[in-house]
Amino acid sequence: MSSKSFVQITTDVSKALATLRKETPETMQGFSAMAKGALQDGVLSELQKELIALAIAVTQRCDACVGFHIKALIRLGASREQIMETLGVCTYMGGGPALMYAAEAVRAYEEMAPKTPTA
User: Domain Carboxymuconolactone decarboxylase-like: where (predicted)?
Assistant: First the structure.
């Protein structure tokens, strides 16, 4: 069993990002503006763009990125099937290392997604 918690990772990184926002405000404002511009609905929806961001996070093997983009996808109502299909493309394009991080993204989703009651 892995001790990695994506909830904890995103919480810890959020705290560190708050410090960066305080101590490097211009840089962080610029990054936030870029993220907002890149992710807003256009020809591609915000959800589609977040799926792309998840794919990049997986292939770049960024734990915090995986956590933040899974969290955003849950907020946007992405289905498990949409996430799994995205992870399949990641595996195709990134090979074995992407497959290992696709598994990490599954763990992040299962940790962060609302639990459905069983009948």
Answer: 25-107
Task: Express each pLDDT in 29-64 by its tens digit.
Answer: 999 999 999 999 999 999 999 999 999 999 999 999
Q: What residue spans define the domains of the chain? A: 44-113
Tell whether the torsion through CA atoms of 83, 36, 114 and 98 is positive or negative.
positive
Residue 113 DSSP one-character state: S
CB 70 within 8 A of CB 83: yes
What the block records as the tokens of 84 is 């799994």
Q: What is the pTM of this model?
A: 0.88
Q: Are the C-beta atoms of 93 and 60 separated by less than 8 Å?
A: no
Domain 44-113 bears CATH identifier 1.20.1290.10: yes
Amino acid in the structure at residue 30 = G
